[in-house]
Amino acid sequence: MFQLIDGLIKNNVKPKTIVYAKIDDFVGKIESIHDIVNVYYEIIGIDPNEAFFFFDKIRFMENWHL
Predict the structure, then answer these.
(1) Which residues contact 51 (CB under 8 A, 6 or more apart)?
(2) What is the dihedral of CA 56, 61, 63, 66, to 10 degrees?
(3) Backbone angles phi, psi at 53, to 5 degrees
(4) In the 8-state DSSP scheme, what is residue 32?
(5) pTM of the predicted protein model
(6) Which residues on neighbouring strands pair with residue 21, listed in sequence order?
C-alpha cells in the first residue's frame, strides 16, 4: 500500500489528494468509510472523486464490502 502511495507522489499526484486511514483506529467511532470521505471533503475541500483513498485494516469494519 505504501509503495502505491509513494508511486503516486513520484508521479506528481498532489499529496492532499492522497488519504491513508488505518480503520482499526476508527472502529466504534464512525459508522462507515463514507464518514471518512465526507470529513475529508469538509476539511480539505477536494472532491473525493478526485482523491485516492487507502483504507488499511478495512476488515475490522462491519459491512465494509457494501
Answers:
(1) 17, 18, 19, 40
(2) -30
(3) -110, 130
(4) S
(5) 0.76
(6) 55
Task: Output the pLDDT for position 62.
Answer: 66
CA distance 66 to 59: 12
pLDDT band at 65 (very low <50, low <70, confident <90, very high): low
Per-residue pLDDT of 6-57, as tens digits, reads 999 999 999 999 999 888 877 777 777 888 888 889 999 989 899 999 988 8
Residues in the chain: 66
- Please give the grid coordinates belonging to residue 23: 480503520
Cell numbers at residue 65, please?
464490502
Q: Would you state the torsion angle of the CA atoms of residues 43, 40, 23, 33, taken in this order, to the nearest 10 degrees?
A: 130
